Every structure is written in structure tokens, then in C-alpha cells.
């Protein structure tokens, strides 16, 4: 028997044992749910504000209090930002999440096994942060923009560390900003260091559920720290009250913005990327290229060298930015690589 078959069979057995174990745990949980049912309050609306492995923190939409909850085994995976129906615990112990609302959007990332897992729900603003340092890449900005477009989340570009833009750098940043401004993307300049542009940034966030994304070192944490006053950060301490401990690892956490709205933060969201998309979706994520899809002379046009290509034609006519199309090519190449790696892995294991 080949190594590959043996591995498959072993894997199958392990999976079977795991499934049996899971079913037992779920039966036990259901029993416990019934046992505590008479100690629970009435069903009410809530919001998931943190996630800790098998438990979640739920905030009451009635009085803003937060409580640790477990959730019914039949519920789909809950994530921070989910709106739920739940029953608070009357005395000590955990509350129970009994139902979830439909999501308006969901952000996903792959787990350790490469399977896509949701990390945040109902986000409606993506703040894409870039800065003079580390040196920005329009390709990376495009990746985030495509991800936002495909998830139905409004992107806002934030050029942080504006204090570092001198006369020498200024023309370069004006040029970069113009590309996105012309496409209709909102773009703000800010500085977490000298508080420049922060009121415009606050205005862009107010009333929305937001995430900050961007390269490491562009100043996301610095901006979040300025935007959330001490009172808000103190909500972290609440998790201690509910017995979760300050050092419990969370996948994500939701903070309230002082003027209304929420901010969801997590390392997983910061690394948010284009995990699962194919070439057609990539094109759809480029708002100026999407309407040109299907207008090339050849149906299987690669948009590289064919005559009558709507995309290269639009660049030649000066209707769309050559840099954006160039980025599209580069990102498309990486999609091929990802697909190939996936294929190689599945072939070898
Ligand atoms: N000059 C200047 N420096 C800033 C500004 N904002 C942040 N920094 C500095 O940039 C560095 C990185 O900031 P962080 O807030 O840690 O960046 P981040 O994007 O959260 O990085 P990761 O946590 O790695 O994703 C720190 O040394 C900050 O002090 C700014 O507006 N101006
Ligand atoms: Zn074409």
C-alpha cells in the first residue's frame, strides 16, 4: 500500500473518531443547555463583540452590558459583528446565543489548513491605510480595493504619516492619489503623530462598522489608538469581569467609536487578502475594468496582446490608468501561482 493511501485511510479514521467525539460533545452541550434553560432570561437582541474559541462575548442591545455566552450547536459559526438573539444568564454562568441574523458582509481568511473561515461580519467600511514609509505599493492598494469591492464593503483610502510628506515626496503622492481619486474612491490624508486630518477620518467612520487594513508599519494601531479614547479601550477590561481573562486570545474584537459606529480589530483582519478569487472575479473587483469585460474582440482574450482588446484599448485611449491594468496583470499572475500551489499540494499529499 502506498504512503498516500495509508495517509488517506489514517486521515479517514481520525476524522471518524473526531466526528464521533464532536457528536458526543454536542449531545452533552444540548443536555446542559436544557439544564440551564430555566436560569436564563428572555430572548433579546445582541451583538457579538469578541470570540474566544468555544465561547463568545455578547453585548445586549437593550442596556449595553456584555456577557460571556456559549451557543447552540446547530448555529453556523459565529463571528465578531454578528447580530444575534440570545438569552442572558440570570445569575452566574453563561448566557446562550440561540439564533443569528443574516449578514450584510463577511470577511474571511484561511485557517491553518487553508480552509476559509469567517472572522468578522457586517463590516461596511474598509479603511485601507498606506504611508510614505513603508514605501507604498499601488498593487497592494489594488488588492485591498478588489477585496473590498467583491465583499460589498465601501473602501476609504487613508494616507497616514502625512507629516512625513515633504516637497520632494509630494508630487509622487499627488500622482498616486489622483489615480484613486479619479476612480471615485474617497481618500484622506492623516497623521496619527500630529493629529492632522483626524476629524475627517472620524467623519468617515461615524455610524459604520469599520476595519483598518494595510501593510505592517503604516500606522494602523497608532490610528486606532487615537480614535478610541481611554473609555473605549477600557471595554477590554470587561472581559476580565466576565471571567475570560485579559490574556485570552481572541480572533477579533469590536470596539464602539465615541461618535457612533464600531471598529473591529484583529490580526486576522489586518492580513485580509484575496484568498479565494479567480480571474473573472479579479476583473469584477476593478471598478473601471469590470464594465469592459466581454467587450474584447476575442472571447478568450488574455488582455495582453490581442487586437481589439477592450482593456488595452481603454488604456491607449487614456480612459483608464496604465498602472491599474499593470497591477491587474501582476495580481492575476499571483492567482495562477496560488492555484498551482494548491494543485501541487493536492497532488502530493
Ligand atoms: N511620523 C509618523 N509616524 C507614525 C505615524 N503613525 C504611526 N507612526 C509610526 O509608525 C510605526 C508603525 O506604527 P503602527 O501603528 O505600529 O503600525 P501598524 O500598521 O499598526 O503595524 P502592524 O501592527 O505591524 O500592522 C510606529 O513607530 C509609529 O510610531 C504618523 O502619522 N507619523
Ligand atoms: Zn481583452
TrEMBL record:
Q: Which InterPro entries match?
A: G_CP_dom, NA-bd_OB-fold, P-loop_NTPase, Ribosome_biogen_GTPase_RsgA, RsgA_GTPase_dom
Organism field: Isoalcanivorax pacificus W11-5
**Which residues are involved in binding Zn(2+)?**
296, 301, 303, 309
The EC designation for this entry is: 3.6.1.-
A molecular-function term among this protein's GO annotations: metal ion binding
Protein name (record): Small ribosomal subunit biogenesis GTPase RsgA
Gene Ontology annotations for the cellular component aspect, listed alphabetically: cytoplasm
Name the residues that bind GTP.
160-163, 214-222
Outline the extent of the EngC GTPase domain.
121-270
Assembly and partners are described as:
Monomer. Associates with 30S ribosomal subunit, binds 16S rRNA.
Q: Does the keyword Chloroplast apply?
A: no
Amino acid at each position: 500500500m502506498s504512503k498516500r493511501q495509508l495517509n488517506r485511510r489514517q486521515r479517514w479514521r481520525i476524522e471518524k473518531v473526531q466526528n464521533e467525539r464532536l457528536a458526543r460533545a454536542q449531545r452533552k452541550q444540548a443536555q446542559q443547555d436544557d439544564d440551564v434553560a430555566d436560569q436564563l432570561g428572555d430572548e433579546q437582541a445582541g451583538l457579538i463583540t469578541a470570540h474566544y474559541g468555544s465561547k463568545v462575548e455578547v453585548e445586549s442591545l437593550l442596556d449595553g452590558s456584555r456577557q460571556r455566552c456559549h451557543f447552540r450547536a446547530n448555529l453556523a459559526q459565529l463571528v465578531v459583528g454578528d447580530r444575534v438573539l440570545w438569552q442572558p444568564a440570570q445569575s452566574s454562568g453563561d448566557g446562550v446565543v440561540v439564533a443569528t441574523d443574516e449578514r450584510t458582509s463577511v470577511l474571511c481568511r484561511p485557517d491553518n489548513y487553508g480552509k476559509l473561515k469567517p472572522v468578522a461580519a457586517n463590516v461596511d467600511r474598509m479603511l485601507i491605510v498606506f504611508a510614505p514609509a513603508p514605501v507604498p505599493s499601488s498593487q497592494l492598494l489594488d488588492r485591498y480595493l478588489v477585496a473590498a469591492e467583491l465583499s460589498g464593503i465601501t473602501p476609504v483610502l487613508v494616507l497616514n504619516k502625512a507629516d512625513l510628506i515633504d516637497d520632494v515626496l509630494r508630487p509622487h503622492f499627488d500622482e498616486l492619489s489622483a489615480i484613486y481619486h479619479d476612480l471615485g474612491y474617497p481618500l484622506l490624508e492623516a497623521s496619527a503623530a500630529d493629529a492632522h486630518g483626524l476629524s475627517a477620518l472620524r467623519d468617515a467612520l461615524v455610524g459604520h462598522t469599520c476595519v483598518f487594513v494595510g501593510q505592517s508599519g503604516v500606522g494602523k494601531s497608532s490610528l486606532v489608538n487615537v480614535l478610541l479614547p481611554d473609555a473605549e479601550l477600557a471595554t477590554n477590561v470587561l472581559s476580565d469581569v466576565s471571567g475570560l481573562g485579559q490574556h485570552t486570545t481572541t480572533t477579533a474584537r469590536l470596539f464602539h467609536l465615541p461618535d457612533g459606529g464600531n471598529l473591529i480589530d484583529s490580526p486576522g483582519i489586518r492580513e485580509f487578502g484575496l484568498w479565494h478569487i479567480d480571474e473573472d472575479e479579479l476583473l469584477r473587483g476593478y471598478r473601471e475594468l469590470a464594465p469592459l469585460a466581454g467587450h474584447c474582440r476575442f472571447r478568450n482574450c488574455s488582455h495582453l496582446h490581442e487586437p481589439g482588446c477592450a482593456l488595452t484599448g481603454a488604456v491607449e485611449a487614456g480612459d483608464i490608468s496604465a498602472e491599474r491594468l499593470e497591477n491587474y496583470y501582476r495580481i492575476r499572475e499571483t492567482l495562477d501561482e496560488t492555484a498551482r500551489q494548491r494543485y501541487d499540494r493536492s497532488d502530493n499529499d
